[in-house]
Amino acid sequence: MIEKLYVRDRDGAAALMSSHRAAALLIMFYAIQASLPAGRAFGQPSQIGGGQMRIATNLQTGATYAITASDCGRLVVFSSSANVSVSIPQAGPTGLANGCWIEIQNTGSGAATFSVTNSTVDGGSGFTLATTQGLRLFSTGTLYFTQRGQGTGASSGLTIQSSGVPLGPANTLNITGGTGVACVPQVNSGTMTFQCNADTSYVVSKTTLQGSGNPQICTSSSGSGATYTAGCASPLTGYAARQTLFWFADVANAVTAPTINIDTLGASTLVRQDGSALAVGDIKAGALYRIWYDGTNTRVAELASSVSGSSQATSGATSTRGPFASRGTCGSSQAGNTFYSTDIGHFSQCDGNSWADYFKGQPVMLPSSITFTTLNGSGATITTNGISTISAPSTAATSIIGQEVAVPAGTWTVTAWLEPNDPGVVNSAPPARLLYVRDSSNKMVALYGQSALYYGNQLRWTHISSPTGTVTTVLGVSDTGQFIPYLRIQYDGTNFIYSGCTVYNLATTGGADNFGGGNCETLYSESATAWLSTPVAVGWGLDTHAAGVNTNALTAIHWQVTN
Questions:
Q1: Structural domain includes residue 32
Q2: CB half-sphere exposure, 561, CA atoms < 13 A
Q3: Is 95 within 8 Å of 116 (Cβ atoms)?
Q4: What pLDDT is attached to residue 521?
Q5: CATH, residue 124
Q6: CA 135 – CA 396 distance, rounded (Å)
Q7: What is the rounded average pLDDT for all residues in the chain?
Q8: Which candidate in 110, 120, 325, 424 could, as Cys together with 82 as Cys, close a disulfide (CB 3.0–4.6 Å)?
Q9: Which residues contact 8 (CB under 8 A, 6 or more apart)?
Q10: Concatenated DSSP letters of 470-518
């Protein structure tokens, strides 16, 4: 039985309570203890479950929204199909006070962009939530922090930028190739890479530009020098002013105003670069020209301006004519000067250092007497004035008369353009012009070109015992009525290869007067040791063993040894 009970008030003062009052107070204590949930002791902190507390929801479907203090402790949900702009007030008493928290979620397909006034969120000016993303926003009274997370929906959390400028987050990234660009996606170890390259079906590649498939190359095959047609590697769809192409001409122009029809787009007149009319033969067969369309005509860039008179002087340079022997000097002060020979079909132009020589319109190299040695000059004379001529008396016995030079080391080719001044007389065998190879014992192999008035042209490969010895024909061919100006012997280290080149028809072959050009073909070859030992010299000249009644002459317009 309780007789006395001491209690303390809030100030700690003790007081004696009567037994009746103490009993009543004790009964009240046990009643409160009995009312607590199981497992809880009197004096422990209280717990609130979901059954005791509800969080209010604020559902927004519009494109704009301003958060207020009434949203503290709420779940604010944005469900717009369009992008949403949300403003957050300043953190503090006039906006969201210290301790305010708000649950925020975006369930709409549009992005929700949040911006704050006079405060920061995690040190920034705001944030953006894509669909299925959410976070919790906390106010400290002066600024904001977030507790962030990402939903399990389709969003990748990808933010798209263009040149550093945000375009906003998106759920889907779609990359497509544009004009001339092809993009191929690749996925490797969870990383997607887009390889974008030029579409070569639209953009020309380096390989194509440097090959025969260059779309700017247009080729003619019509066989007409008056109405050209051409097809481009990549067919044109139309003409355009200043359109530039490369054109391969199949034949020379036969008229002064030829036309060209490219990819059947219509005929256009071909003119020179300055718009003046062409001269017959300006366009060369087998030549590549740069052409451009001026809106009416097609201009050939390589054909400059028209000239008047015969001087063809340009930039103050002079032009002279006369016998080849009268050709003047060539130096820096004569750059651009031209000289036309009146005794041979020869043209020279000074480049400021030396003369560039042309015969029948084609470039040639003239022999120099300084580097040559006479093989067997008995009874003959050799003159050199830029062009070497051998003259032999009609009474000469079997004799090879000419000039030669030591063969270079290794493989080599010797080529000569030989033009006889005396083609032979009726019923006589004129001296043959020849290109030969000699060994140290003076044995020789020779490529003969011989023309006679009645017997036509003959081409022979021969073995010669010495410059004055026996001549044995190994192989002979006849080419009646044709001129054989080119002779060539090649040495590959093992064999001699003999070639003869003839000009069949200047009207159709176009470039046949090129040195070594025209209808050149290998007609015979033999082992280098079949007749000779090691070759020591090559040369050109006459074989006068069957000289006619007249003095015979041979002109070497071009002589060249290369290795």
A1: no
A2: 22
A3: no
A4: 64
A5: 2.60.120.640
A6: 118
A7: 76
A8: 110
A9: 14, 15
A10: -EEEEEEEEETT-EEEEEEEEE-SSEEEEEEEEE--HHHHSSTTSTT-S
Report yes or no: 386 and 326 within 8 Å, Cβ to Cβ. Answer: no
Question: Which segment of 34-38, 61-65, 413-417, 517-521 scores lowest on mean pLDDT?
Answer: 517-521
95-104, 141-150, 292-301, 374-383: least confident range: 374-383
Structural domains in the chain (count): 4
Shared-domain flag, residues 272 and 327: no
Task: For residue 447, give Cα distances in angstroms to 36, 119, 463.
Answer: 131, 102, 9
Residues 170, 131: Cα–Cα separation, whole Å: 9
Residues 415 and 463 placed together within one structural domain of the fold: yes
Same domain, 255 and 274: yes
User: Which letter, b or e, does each residue of 511-539 get, where b requires 16 or more Cβ atoms within 10 Å of its Cβ?
Assistant: ebbbbbbbbbeeebbbebeebbeebebbb
CATH code for position 424: 2.60.120.200
What distance in Å separates the CA atoms of residue 388 and residue 373, rounded to the nearest whole number? 13
Domain identity same for 350 and 376: no
Which of the four pLDDT bands, split at 50, 70 and 90, describes residue 14?
Answer: low
Question: Considering all CA atoms of the chain, what is the largest pairwise distance in Å, rounded to the nearest integer?
Answer: 178
- Domain with 131, as residue range(s), is 57-149
